């Protein structure tokens, strides 16, 4: 046998067990990606090792002509080099790494397709299917540039598993031409079935990615939200109303309202909101609950009054009990810029308070329901901040509205602290994107758009048009995971922007008893931050009833089955009845 042929045969014989070992390693790495609790850097390292091994396997592909041999080895070398870079330098930047991963998977699929087309083989269909799966997974990887994303881990991890199995099965099923002809149908179809499952998974991941990132079409504000030509200059005046049919609690009537309010600089503005009241109501004025809603987004279409569930925000079950079972009326404000035109002053406490107080005033002018001028104020998260600010501002801004109690559930009381602690979390990046999109208009002197961290501007543009309700919550959070770094650089937090964040902390004094509820498993509003804010307010003389709930997070705190629900109803009825306050500042944890 010629020397060249002998060397080629030896290398081919050597390549088979190496590719089999690489296949086993690929399966292990894929399982790690899918199942192991890996950090961001660990995911990058595992991904890089897998790509490097795939490069070695590509370089050892069985080849016939020189063109295929050269192309396979060149691609294998490039893939190995890129995988090694990712494994050694995992902090090199998520978008850049994701591009390499996606391009590598697509390139591997194309190379395998070319190999099959040029040289055929008894498993041509199977190889083409696996190649297509590789290409689809590559496209998914390009769509999800942050390595911590679940879909990215599932996609790349599954590709490693199937790629590895393909190498192992290829080594196990090496036969002479006669043995290949004698192989049973089950053996011949086993790889095809596995490859088909890989392709199905790849397509499912791709479709799921598109569904999750796309959000859902939401109704845009119609003519109801347009202010008339002549708008009253006095805040708290009802402009118009119309019945609400969707999402209304059984046993209640509800209406959408448009009313006047003011901007933080005192200039006139218009806001929308809702009123809900029991169907069975007499002529006596109903006790009024004023609700400051939590984060729903910053686009006009994100107004709660446009939602299919306008009363589900925050402690929705407690609100329904108060209205249907206890005969109260409730009024909510959408806030300026949600529903109505203009920039939404997101997490600007003074603006939220004005909107809530003017909604309570407008409710007193509503002819369908008679309500008192006394009110208890509720709010969750952003609305928790809003309810505290409503109490703080009430006597100065709306002395005609008597606040009897203020309840705040997981309130965003320390906005600067939240920005600092949550700046690298997906939810924190989403909230930061909302702030960047709105405060850039409200405070042009900050020039926020020019000071965001590299790679953040695109994420802000995508997130600002997504609402924080329904499927859009998932889309907004997932887009938040796609922002590679914290949105605001530390230098920005240290300057005027940081001072404005600190200025949103409600400090009182409060004209009525305050209830603050906090879940101890809340990853967004941290219990230790809440305790610090409560301790500071207690030291300043505020009457605060602080309650913690073990095992409850940001949303389960206000769920229907939360222990807070009956406690909140009881506490609210007690405030309206004029019962003594129940502060517990002396017993803080």
Automatic annotation (TrEMBL):
One of its GO terms (biological process) is lipid catabolic process. Gene3D superfamilies: alpha/beta hydrolase. GO terms for molecular function: triacylglycerol lipase activity. Pfam families: DUF308, LIP. It comes from the Bacteria. Keywords: Hydrolase, Membrane, Transmembrane, Transmembrane helix. The chain crosses the membrane at residues 12-36, 42-61, 73-90, 96-114, 126-145, 151-173, 193-213. PANTHER family: LIPASE 5, PTHR34853. This is Uncharacterized membrane protein HdeD (DUF308 family)/alpha-beta hydrolase superfamily lysophospholipase. It comes from Leucobacter aridicollis.
């Amino acid at each position: 046998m010629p020397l060249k042929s002998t060397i080629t045969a030896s290398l081919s014989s050597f390549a088979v067990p190496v590719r089999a070992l690489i296949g086993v390693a690929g399966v292990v790495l894929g399982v790690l990606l899918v199942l192991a609790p890996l950090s961001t850097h660990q995911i990058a390292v595992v991904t890089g090792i897998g790509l490097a091994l795939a490069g070695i396997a590509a370089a050892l592909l069985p080849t016939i002509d020189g063109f295929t041999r050269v192309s396979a080895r060149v691609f294998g070398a490039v893939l190995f080099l890129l995988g090694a870079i990712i494994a050694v330098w995992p902090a090199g930047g998520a978008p850049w790494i994701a591009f390499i991963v996606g391009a590598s998977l697509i390139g591997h699929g194309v190379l395998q397709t070319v190999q099959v087309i040029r040289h055929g083989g008894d498993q041509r269909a199977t190889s083409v299917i696996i190649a297509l799966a590789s290409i689809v997974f590559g496209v998914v990887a390009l769509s999800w540039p942050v390595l911590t994303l679940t879909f990215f881990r599932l996609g790349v991890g599954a590709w490693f598993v199937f790629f590895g199995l393909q190498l192992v099965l290829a080594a196990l099923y090496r036969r002479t031409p006669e043995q290949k002809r004698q192989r049973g149908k089950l053996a011949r179809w086993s790889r095809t079935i596995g490859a088909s499952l890989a392709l199905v998974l790849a397509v499912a991941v791709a479709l799921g990615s598109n569904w999750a990132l796309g959000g859902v079409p939401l109704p845009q504000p119609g003519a109801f939200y347009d202010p008339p030509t002549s708008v009253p200059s006095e805040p708290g005046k009802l402009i118009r109303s119309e019945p609400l049919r969707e999402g209304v609690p059984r046993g209640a009537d509800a209406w959408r309202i448009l009313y006047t309010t003011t901007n933080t600089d005192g200039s006139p503005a218009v806001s929308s909101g809702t009123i809900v009241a029991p169907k069975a109501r007499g002529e006596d004025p109903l006790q009024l609950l004023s609700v400051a809603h939590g984060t729903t987004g910053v686009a006009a279409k994100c107004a709660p009054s446009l939602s299919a569930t306008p009363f589900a925000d925050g402690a929705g079950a407690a609100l329904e009990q108060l209205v249907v079972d206890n005969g109260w009326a409730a009024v909510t404000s959408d806030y300026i810029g949600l529903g109505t035109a203009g920039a939404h002053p997101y997490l600007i406490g003074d603006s939220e308070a004005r909107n809530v107080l003017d909604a309570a005033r407008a409710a007193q002018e509503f002819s369908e329901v008679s309500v008192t001028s006394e009110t208890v104020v509720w709010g969750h998260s952003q609305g928790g901040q809003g309810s505290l600010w409503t109490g703080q501002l009430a006597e100065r801004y709306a002395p005609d509205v008597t606040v009897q109690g203020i309840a705040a559930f997981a309130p965003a009381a320390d906005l600067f602290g939240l920005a600092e602690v949550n700046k690298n979390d997906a939810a924190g990046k989403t909230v930061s994107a909302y702030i960047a999109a709105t405060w850039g208009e409200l405070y042009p002197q900050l020039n926020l758009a020019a000071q965001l961290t590299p790679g953040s501007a695109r994420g802000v543009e995508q997130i600002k048009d997504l609402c924080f309700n329904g499927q859009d919550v998932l889309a907004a959070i997932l887009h938040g995971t796609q922002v590679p770094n914290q949105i605001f650089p530390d230098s920005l937090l240290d300057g005027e922007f940081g001072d404005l964040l600190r200025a949103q902390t409600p400090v009182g004094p409060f004209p009525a008893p305050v209830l603050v509820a906090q879940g101890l498993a809340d990853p967004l509003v941290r219990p230790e931050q809440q305790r610090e804010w409560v301790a500071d307010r207690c030291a300043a003389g505020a009457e605060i009833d602080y309650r913690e709930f073990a095992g409850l997070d940001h949303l389960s705190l206000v769920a229907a089955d939360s222990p807070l629900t009956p406690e909140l109803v009881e506490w609210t009825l007690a405030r309206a009845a004029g019962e003594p306050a129940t502060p517990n500042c002396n017993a803080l944890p």
